Amino acid sequence: MYALKTILAASAVAFALPAAAEIRIVSPYMIASPMAMGSGAAFFVIENTGPGDDRLADAASDIADMTQLHTHIADSSGVMQMVHVPEGWVIPAGTTHALARGSDHVMFMGIKAPLQVGDIVTLTLKFEKAGDVVVQIPFGVAPATDSMPMGSMPMGSMPMGNMPMAPAKP
Q1: How confident is the model at residue 33, as a pLDDT?
Q2: Distances from the Cα of 133 to the Cα of 29, 107, 168, angstroms
Q3: pLDDT at 156
Q4: Domain ranges, ordered by start, for the chain
Q5: What Å distances lie between residue 77 and 35, 153, 168, CA to CA?
Q6: In the prediction, which pLDDT does 35 show?
Q7: What percent of the chain stands above pLDDT 90?
Q8: φ/ψ of residue 41, rounded to 5
Q9: Of the candidates 55, 52, 56, 22, which has an alpha carbon nearest to the alpha carbon of residue 42?
Q10: Are 43 and 99 in contact (CB under 8 A)?
């Protein structure tokens, strides 16, 4: 009888817990900005293969003084500006969310030491349901499929420096 009560209690707890999101990070890479010394950004695709929505709420890394979730928005003049997204992003069940150049990304400010192409950066992504997801991100190596979506972004006054990036691997 004790065994049956234990099984029933365990079953009740299992059904009472919310379904955990299943999060996978695809094609991560990081670059540094030649225009803003000591800053960089990470890009990747978040796949939520779980049965429920989840939210990327924050990010952390010990390579920089500050690590934040950022996006780009156009101001009233149509000039793109980068802004902190403290609420993060919801990733609905069964979908993906791309962090890409010129869009959503993880921003590193106050990078503590120079990074070399091929260095691996540890980033902890903090999800509301999936918890902490630790990602190893290669620095300076963009996937061959990466490109910055330009859309209708005004490029006339944007400084076009050389990004420190290695050629994409075939």
Answers
A1: 78
A2: 16, 17, 26
A3: 37
A4: 19-137
A5: 22, 11, 35
A6: 64
A7: 62
A8: -145, 150
A9: 56
A10: yes
Give the pTM.
Answer: 0.72
The DSSP code sequence of 18-87 is PPPP-EEEEEEEEEE-SSSTTEEEEEEEEEE-SSS-EEEEEEE-TTEEEEEEEEEEE-TTS-EEEEE-TT
In sequence order, which residues have a C-beta less than 8 Å from that of residue 64 and are 6 or more positions away?
A: 39, 40, 108, 109, 110, 111, 112
Question: 19-137 has which CATH code?
Answer: 2.60.40.1890
pLDDT band at 8 (very low <50, low <70, confident <90, very high): very low
Q: Give me the count of residues in the chain.
A: 170
- CA atoms of 163 and 158, how far apart (whole Å): 14
More confident residue, 75 or 165: 75
Task: Identify the top-confidence range among 31-45, 63-77, 153-167.
Answer: 63-77
Hey, what amino acid is at 122?
Answer: T
Scan for tokens 């069940």, then name that residue: 93
